[in-house]
Amino acid sequence: MTGTIFPDLKGKSVYITGGASGIGAALTDGFMAQGAKVAIIGRSAADDFIAEMEIKHGATPLFMQGDISDIPRLRETIQQAVGQHGGLDVLVNNAANDQRHALDEVDEEFYDWMQAVNQKAYFFACQEAARQMAGGGSIINYSSISYIMGNAGYPIYTSANAAITGMTRSLARELGPKGIRVNALAPGWVLTQKQLDMWADPEGLAAHLERQCLKEHLTPEDMIDPTLYLASNASRMMTGQCMAVDGGVVVSG
Questions:
Q1: How far apart are CA 12 and CA 36, in angstroms?
Q2: Considering the entire predicted model, what is its pTM?
Q3: Which helix (H) or strand (E) is 141 found in, with range?
Q4: Domain ranges of the chain
Q5: What are the pLDDT digits (tens) for 142-187?
Q6: Cβ neighbourhood burial of 205 (10 Å; 0-12, 13-18, 19+)
Q7: Among 196, 217, 195, which residue's Cα sits nearest to residue 206?
Q8: What is the pLDDT of residues 179-218, one digit of tens each?
Q9: For residue 57, how many other CB atoms are within 10 A of its CB?
Q10: What is the dihedral of CA 53, 54, 58, 64, to 10 degrees?
């Protein structure tokens, strides 16, 4: 858990997609530790997580069940968060699906579903958030180093993450005059429970760790401080950037 304090995040209204599991759950915990008012959308019920946050922070996140690919429901939950929390200061587009697939296996239905979850929902969440951020704000779009590395095994996912970075740069230009900052955060291989259950094997983990400069595997908690930084005034003149947090696998510049 983070020990860094960002005083300006206290009382801020934060909306996180996928905020009850994996990286998103760590982010919800991190923002609540700062005293932020957190709203989250998730596909599955999250009673145990909500109870855990209540015990830990003496407050509960606003949990709204829904699928981010259902754009009307996505809009509705953002508007509900605004109504309950008195505005919107921070959007974190975190939810994604990195289901593995080979080029020859993909049909149109699967392609459309992958893009709906991994890119389309990000766009429309940004659109609705920008409409609600009357006094400016910060949008943080989770991308991935997978497209920078040119990884095989999930070409629709890597395409979507490249698009997220491009969208981030364009929206930073478009929304800057309104005082809205837009940045992307590209994690490395973060070992969520899903990753450990589905994709992580000893050989793959060892090979990836060899690529890292820092010889420790990433955990969801490693994403908290970088996200808080992008949300806070500590990064007030930073926008249109893609920040890799990966233990030193990829480089830019």
A1: 5
A2: 0.95
A3: strand 137-142
A4: 7-245
A5: 999 999 999 999 999 999 999 999 999 999 999 999 999 999 999 9
A6: middle
A7: 217
A8: 999 999 999 989 888 888 887 889 989 999 999 999 999 9
A9: 17
A10: 80
Mean pLDDT of 44-57: 97
Q: Which CATH class is domain 7-245?
A: alpha beta
The SS3 assignment for 184 reads strand
Q: In which residue are the tokens 């932020």 written?
A: 36
Residue among 157, 75, 79 nearest 119 (CA): 157
In eight-state DSSP terms, residue 178 is: G
**Tokens at residue 249, please?**
């696998």
Of 93-102, 127-136, 191-200, least confident by mean pLDDT is 191-200
Cα dihedral 117→121→122→124 (10° resolution): 170
3-state secondary structure of 216: coil
Residue 90 amino acid letter:
V
| Angle between helices 121-132 and 71-85 in degrees, nearest 10 | 30
Catalytic residue among 147, 154, 157, 229, which?
Answer: 157
Is residue 157 annotated as part of the catalytic site, yes or no?
yes
Rounded-to-integer distance, Cα 233 and Cα 238, Å: 9
